[in-house]
User: Fold Small-conductance mechanosensitive channel from Pedobacter psychrotolerans.
Amino acid sequence: MQRFAQLSAKKSADEFNADKAALAQARILEEAKKAMQKAKSYLKTASDTLVAKAQLASIEKDYNAAVDGVMINKGTAQTFRNLTSTSKILSELLNKAIARKIRLDNQQQSIINFRYQLDSLISLPELFKFPIDSADLYKYIQQLRVVALEINPIDSALKISSTRVQLLQNVVNVRVLNLQTTLEEINHYQMEMGTNILHREFVNIWDDAGSHRPFKQILRQGKEKGLLTLTFYLQNNLGKLFILILLIFFSFIYLRSLKKIYIENKILSDDFEGQLVLRYPLASAVLIVISIFQFIFFSPPFILNVIFWIMSCLSLTIMFKNFIVKYWMNVWLVMVVLFMIAAVDNLILQASRPERWMMLVLSILGVASGAYVLIKGRREELREKLILVAIGLMTAIELGSICCNIFGRYNLGKALLISGYLNVVVAILFLWTIRLINEGLYLAYNVYTKQELKLFYLNFSKVGKNVPALFYIVLIVGWIILFGRNFAGFDYIAKPLREFFATDRTIGDYTFSINGLLLFFVIMSIAVITSKIVSFFASDKHLAQNKEQASQGIGSWLLLVRITILTLGLFLAVAAVGIPLDRITLVLGALGVGIGFGLQALVNNLVSGLIIAFEKPVNVGDAVEIDGQGGKVKSIGFRSSVVATYDGADVIMPNGDLLNSHLINWSLGGNRRRSTLLIGVAYDSDLNLVKKVLLDILSTEPRLTTNPAPIVQYEQFNSSSIDVRIFFWTKNMRDSAVVKSDLIMSINAGFKINGISIPFPQQDLHFPNAKHKDL
Assistant:
């Protein structure tokens, strides 16, 4: 029995272990199938190596085009424009190569994870605990065989994919290293050129050239690099380009609507003197927006700047036609043509002897044309006198370019060549841009006189025909930036300033940068300005057919629209700066404590403003009466509202007081008002005739409503008269006082015609005890 018990126990334990192993084997095989399924799906959806090979080949091709003239076909010396274009192209190629490297690394890691998962599953000890029963063993062996047949092709595919990815990783790693090395070398060249910009790079222009490369190859190289830099930059700045187009569109809509107002009011002059901004709204919008917002494109390629300047010059030329005298129009066209030729020359990236001669000719033409304008120019016909300063500076700069070019200082000579023409063209564009902006503001002030100035952020009353000095300060700063971009040392001068703004600073646990703070304030300022502009144009009475209804219909939503814009601006500003939510929670907590202690009145007024916005018990333009004081609602703000009384005063009332006071809103009742008029007639009057006369007079008054109709009621026997009271409704409550006055005049005339008298107060004295003779 003991032996039987031992054998039974052993048999039970073996069966338990066998069942346990069978469960583990089933689980492992199921996990292996799932892992195989995931591996299959990944191999189908993973990025094709052909795409990676094509991108690497494209990077290799663009790299060879970029280093042409810098690492190969160097020539005698490097040029600033060639190094700058090559650096921008290589930086973009490096970013693409690094992005591809990260994708390949992730792909390789995923493949390794799948292989490791499969290998670890099929090597678990539980799989090798075979069943004792021969039938179960045969079934289990068959199951393992099926799993092995399924795993082998997947494992082979993973190995092949891993090998392919590894080969691509080797290629991309070499490419990244090569790009980084080349960029470092180019940065060294740029630093050396920035410090030695005054040194000679080439021989004198009449000496023999040290090396020679066909000019057609140089042109082709400049074209390829220019298109590459433009393509890469536009791909990375499509959002900014879209914003620029939107700004041009909205500016065009605004100027066109302003021109329409001037045409309708017949105040648009035929010669557009002082109104040039309205002559061609689209050209004005293009010139103003591009001149200002070209600075949102940081470090743009020169070819993009040329496109912007061509569009601006074309717009200004269209506006100048038949507006300025022919002499100065010809001067402008000559400057534009010379500038365009110099800009095209600046797109040539590698130095050559033919280009140096062409630069010399261009510089001589600049000096000659500038000297001619300064000596014989008709200054009395010039509208912007500062243009002469720019032309004089151009003449001096082009003279310097001639000297530098002749004596082998090619980079400095070329920078001076393009800077001279750029100086005068940009100066003219900017001068007329600020003039057009000032005209637009001044013209808007002339027609938007009924708009509340507190709704808009600009005080138009300070805008006149003279351009404010602030505009010229902005012009000078923009001119310096555009002028300095053409010199090799400009980036090294501006680099410390950029680093100062971009450096992260820490206060406690919070890290910030000045760029982030500026971005926060810029976004919030844009939100505030946008909300005020919406209020400004939404309250525009000049564009509405029914001015009263338009003002009331739009005005009720202004507060909600402004709150929405400001809220979105706040969230965008917080998101852009990256302020942590826990910091916002602390601010809200501190604000809650402040509300509990001393800001109850302020919060009450703010909440009351929201209640007014949603419930609309009162609206902009409503005729109201508050504590016996009548007036009209001019604006509803966040904290307070403005009510214009009939006496001419503006009452600024907190929103909390406005809701808590006994508010009478006459506009909610259809803008009608009932009035009464009390009249006394003599006792001997024919009352039926009196009533008929009054009703006839009331029925002929067009300013009274017919439903409800006027009512005439006899009220009481007074001491000297029988009192009759008239009840009537005026269609517009603003006419009630005038109508009442006119009715009194009409009733008095009607009573005289019909012999009805209005008695004046009188008393009879009786002396009963007195004798007649004593009287």
In short: Residues 215-502 form one domain.
